[in-house]
């Protein structure tokens, strides 16, 4: 039984607490948060103890920690937890600073404890079925990847200001999805974007609508589309053209009812809330972490993956400023 | 080049005139109708002559006639045309009277000229693709057939009164579709029905909503659903469960545009008008007739098929009166 | 907190145990089964005690029992549990004997404790969304209902022999669905059926493929199609034609991936296992039970509903024997 | 009755001949081609005369010409035909040279005869329904447009070499589609591309897979994806995100049959051949031309539209060479 400490007690931490408790091979033993009451509430619900973070890291009975704190603490906590011998599953992104993330990566690599980054979408049953079909050669050689990723509504501008921007905060999931599907990093990153959804977002120095094209060494191309607003729901689709066919992973709908009237044929919308869409993915992500840690097998998403996606976000941010393609290698030498 | 006379100049005759003229192996040479002006109009449009029916039947230069007159004239015209040596394509139904249709069948069989009945739906690209898949064994052994056939709106009650009733006028297409798919006639016919769409239809002695179940000697079952009203369009679907899978032929939509808003995900309706839906079927039907007549090969739909469907309509009419299953054989001995 | 005893520890009892434990307003305190080890296993997993049934019924600290034992014990346990003051949720069917079920209904009605029958499909998010749309008048006045309900594979013939037959064992869910959607019982029940899937099922006196038509006092019609085998998965669909449109509740698919190749455009199959399809329904069913019991409000599915569906199953069984429609009233006077 | 001369007698000319002849307001009177036999064949089929081009242009009885000759003759023939007083419908592109096309535009503007460019896709019932929905404000303010346009198989490399390249030969349709939907030209054009489908195409100096992003003055963004190969058929989709929803125009399928087996749920492929997909568009295009010419009303697609799309193709060609965004204005001053 893997004994787990949960660092953070916010909304996403609650999701992880459920996954940890429901898994037959893991148990939640401790929770910490700067908001003590929040930590206590989760601890009570799942029969765990509320502690401070240091106590959790120092508790030798705890095998693993799940880091679901604010982004600015991720790198430090990864380093402290691995140094304390814990296996780590850390929410994305590793850091808003590529330099800090790379330093963390370097520090951790010498310690040798497993660190997995929480790119939950890799574990979505639809995207993982698509990936499996690609790997099985079902559409031949991949050529052109398209990722559509629209949020239902933009976050408050106050959040936008501290988010690191659309590329680090939102599209980073899609950068990782591209890396997951393509199995290699791109060579160049070219971004266009605007703040057509909300000019306040533009005033805050960010974009709310963006298209990024990625080119690969072997001629493959990927394109990622993001918008902060799709009023009909959370729109999450992946489409891959290959030499022998096309694969598409489509949205999950609220239900399967279809109504035909004089006004048309109307079905349900995509699920609106990301937790509705990705709840099965969080459970599968945790199961994969437990399996790798217990089995001593390679993690399905690594700290390197976290750094790679962050580098792409930095490249896109730079591309939109300069109006030119950015070489990914130029950011990583 | 097959020289063709068209008997009748109403709406459906116009559809056939187009099919005859567009086919590279046939040409429309004469048209007749009790409404002379209508005959002259079609004749002018396609470079044919307007004549009276007798003149067309006596013209030895005419190879084939297409009968698109009122139902009560079908049997007589089939007999006269075949006696005059013409190949015949006659609109459904053969007759409203099963006895008259069987007499016609007997008369024609001794003459030996080809007579095809216009069950156009067999030539619909969707239903014929389904039939081809069945025959190729793609779902194994057929077990349970469902036919949904809803008209967008009921005809005037004045028409209902002379139509022969829902089973002879509307469901006869579906009886033929069942025979087409199943490749054998049923053993029993059981009908339920009501006039829930329009009580005037009930007052006229007919039903507007009906479900008929058919049983087959080998244990297969079919069910046909009819309604005179489906406000969203012309709803024409076939579904067949077999030992190794399910086949479904679905509706043709007005276009492929889908709109996602806060109100749901809305696509186009099924085509509303039967000619929109079945125009390709009419052209394919004519092509099949020309090919069989020219090649001397068996017709894809025979007068026997017309009689078989009519017998099923009579059985259903009787079943709804008696409230009991009707043996098809009892009507045909 | 509702304290719950679980009678039965088989597969479906495990599903209920999860639902009871996951609900914030209920807790599983005791489990009984003639297989003591099975009861102990479930009890251990959820922190409950294994007891014998009598002990559970006599324990005044237990508020409610969930009956998930074999069908032949349902009526007795319902009577004993209500007599002991428990609220009851009992798996369907109430009994295989309509007479016994009606006696149970009579006994319970004098006791006055709440008894809900586990027609879980009413709580399926798709069917309940369809029902809500009907009740909101979104397709006007209902006219013609179709229910398709195919199992992926037939059970062993040994099970068939003790099942009460397809109508009492399988189609009973669809009878209840018809009652749920139509809001009234039918007037007549007409069944056709055969054992085309497996002749052994026929030899055991049952059918494996059946179509039942129901007529209603106001002219509405319903048709239910059942097959014990749909190799592509668990096929569960409802379709309702109304005066202003059509509602369809379609299948849940294993995932949303679609592959386009030279062989066609292929998507995932419907979920294969009934628990996959209906797991959310079991949770919603339990939540509805807890809400009604705690709030003292009417139960969403009553013992009367259980008897009504059973009467329809008996009528269908009789219809298939006699080859004639059966009046439902004739069975209930 | 509009009397029409057809310049060219190749495959696409045959399509136009059918549209001209089938339209009740136009008649095909003459056909020319450097391949005299081809011209005579089409002329015979539709009751027209084969002439040489000069004779057609000088025939004052001819009201309009349809130019379906090789691209290098388009500009000359547009100028000669308008100078001779004809109304003109010319196949796309106007020219491979932007300079020549602009000179043609200038010459024609002083003559004042109507010239329409054959961007047939604007008349596709699906894309025109999408455009109508946009204009009706059904998804609010447009923000992000995606066009997917994949050919089923690449043309011979010999054709590629004289085609003007993917942007002028293939994506020009999509540039016009973007202009049609967005109602304004873009500000910048950024292209990435590779020859991953066939390295011979790369050796010929062209790409076979490309993604182009367009930015607009008001912050809108468009992205166009092209591939010369989609083995499953002709993949033609348009998707537009707006402030109040999403519009998608999807593919036309070969038929509506869906098969469910243990291998999945398989439907028909998109139509493979562009004429299958766009045949209704060619008829609608011709009808729109006839209506505008007869009514003296503005043409739905102008020579200016042809030049605009060509300029975007030139910009994309330049962008892919330089690796940088190209300002459209820089090509048109």
What does this structure look like?
The structure is a homotetramer of 333-residue chains. Chain A is α/β, with parallel strands linked by helices and 333 residues long. Chain A folds into two domains: 2-113, Rossmann fold (3-Layer(aba) Sandwich); 122-280 and 309-332, 2-Layer Sandwich (Dihydrodipicolinate Reductase, domain 2), CATH 3.30.360.10. Helix content of chain A is 41%, strand content 25%. Chain A has helices at 11-22, 36-45, 53-58, 74-83, 98-111, 125-135, 157-162, 166-169, 171-182, 199-203, 274-295, 303-322, 329-332; strands at residues 2-7, 26-32, 49-50, 64-67, 87-91, 115-118, 142-150, 188-194, 209-215, 221-227, 235-242, 245-249, 257-261, 264-267, 326-327. In chain A, helix 1 links the parallel strand 1 (2-7) and strand 2 (26-32). In chain A, helix 1 crosses helix 11 and helix 9 (171-182) crosses helix 12 (303-322). Chain A is globular. The interface between A and D is large, with 39 and 39 residues. Strand 12 (245-249) of chain B pairs antiparallel with strand 13 of chain D.
Short description:
The structure is a homotetramer of 333-residue chains. Chain A is an alpha/beta fold and 333 residues long.
CATH topology of the largest domain in chain A: Dihydrodipicolinate Reductase, domain 2
**What best-fitting shape of chain A do the alpha-carbon axes yield?**
globular
Q: Report the CATH architecture of the largest domain in chain A.
A: 2-Layer Sandwich
Report the CATH C-level class of the largest domain in chain A: Alpha Beta
Largest sheet of chain A: 7 strands, mixed
- CATH H-tier superfamily of the largest domain in chain A: Dihydrodipicolinate Reductase, domain 2
N- and C-termini, Cα separation of chain A: 42 Å
Helicity range of the residues of chain A?
40-55%
Our count of helices of chain A gives 13
Instruction: List segments of chain A where confidence is low: pLDDT < 50 over at least 5 consecutive residues.
Output: none
**What is the count of distinct domains of chain A?**
2
Largest interface, chains and sizes: A-D, 39 and 39 residues
Total strands of chain A: the figure is 15
* Integer average pLDDT of chain A: 95
Q: What amount of the residues of chain A lies in strands? A: 15-25%
Rg from alpha-carbon coordinates of chain A: 20 Å
Order of helices and strands of chain A: EHEHEHEHEHEHEHHHEHEEEEEEHHEH
């Amino acid at each position: 039984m893997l004994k787990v400490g949960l660092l953070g007690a916010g909304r996403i931490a609650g999701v992880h607490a459920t996954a940890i408790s429901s898994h037959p091979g893991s148990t939640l033993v401790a929770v910490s948060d700067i908001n003590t009451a929040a930590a206590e509430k989760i601890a009570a619900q799942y029969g765990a103890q509320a502690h401070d973070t240091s106590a959790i890291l120092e508790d030798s009975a705890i095998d693993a920690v799940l880091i679901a704190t604010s982004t600015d603490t991720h790198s430090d906590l990864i380093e402290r937890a691995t140094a304390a011998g814990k296996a780590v599953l850390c929410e994305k992104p590793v850091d808003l600073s590529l330099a800090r993330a790379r330093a963390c990566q370097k520090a951790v690599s010498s310690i040798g404890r497993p660190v997995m980054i929480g790119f939950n979408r890799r574990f979505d049953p639809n995207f993982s079925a698509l990936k499996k079909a690609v790997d099985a050669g079902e559409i031949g050689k991949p050529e052109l990847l398209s990722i559509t990723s629209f949020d239902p509504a933009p976050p408050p501008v106050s959040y936008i200001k501290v988010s690191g921007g659309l590329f680090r905060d939102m599209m980073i999931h899609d950068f990782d999805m591209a890396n997951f599907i393509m199995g290699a990093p791109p060579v160049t990153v070219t971004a266009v974007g605007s703040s057509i959804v909300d000019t306040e977002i533009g005033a805050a120095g960010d974009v709310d609508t963006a298209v990024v094209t990625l080119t690969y060494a072997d001629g493959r191309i990927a394109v990622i589309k993001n918008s902060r607003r799709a009023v009909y729901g959370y729109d999450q689709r992946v489409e891959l053209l290959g030499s022998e066919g096309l694969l598409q992973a489509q949205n999950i709908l609220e239900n399967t009812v279809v109504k035909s009237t004089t006004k048309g044929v109307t079905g349900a919308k995509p699920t609106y809330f990301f937790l509705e869409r990705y709840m099965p993915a969080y459970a599968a992500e945790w199961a994969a972490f437990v399996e790798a840690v217990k089995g001593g097998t390679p993690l399905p998403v690594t700290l390197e993956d976290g750094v790679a996606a962050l580098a792409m976000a930095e490249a896109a941010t730079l591309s939109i400023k300069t109006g030119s393609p950015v070489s990914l290698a130029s950011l990583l030498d």
